Amino acid sequence: MEKCIFCEELIPADSEECPHCDKKPFSGMYFDPEKYKIVDQLEKDGELEKAWELLHEEWMVHGDVDYYDDDMYFELLEKMHELYERNPSLIRQRVDLIKDYWRNAVYYAYVVHKNDIEEGLDIVRKANRKDLEEELIDYLDEIHR
Ligand SMILES: [Zn+2]
Questions:
Q1: Using CA atoms, how far apart are residues 96 and 99, in angstroms rounded to an integer?
Q2: What's the pLDDT at 77?
Q3: Among 78, 86, 85, which residue's Cα sits nearest to residue 58?
Q4: Distance of CA 35 from the midpoint of ligand 1 (Å)
Q5: Residue 35 CB partners (closer than 8 Å, separation 6+)
Q6: Ligand 1 mean position to 106 CA, how many Å?
Q7: Tens digit of pLDDT for each residue in 24-47?
Q8: How much distance in Å is there from the Cα of 23 to the middle of ligand 1?
Q9: 8: left (phi over 0), alpha (psi -120 to 50) or beta
Q10: Spacing, Cα 34 to ligand 1 middle (Å)
């Protein structure tokens, strides 16, 4: 038996659909792993923004309040971070992602955790982007208001 990630009822581990909430009950079941192959190919072809967009779309879906899949949420976040690390030209997208992530944190937990703030600010500091650092600090004020 395993817990459905949506309604947390215990159900057989091989269930395709949860008998309690009718959703696909386990992490990753709403994700098509082929997507990662498409993203890899786009990156190889230099279509960085498209590769990012695809990951970001999936991340939004998995962070949706109705389909919140913790494991996939953080896996996709990590994939986007790796894509950025290999391709620093995606800094604008990376900064927007930090904002999305913080906004979600406020939505679910009312505040952004100190570590998450530091992690976000570190990314723009490493890139030597004082302007983006200020933008993020302003954004923190805005979402905590
Ligand atoms: Zn369920």
A1: 5
A2: 95
A3: 78
A4: 25
A5: 54, 55, 58
A6: 25
A7: 999 999 999 999 999 999 999 999
A8: 6
A9: left
A10: 25
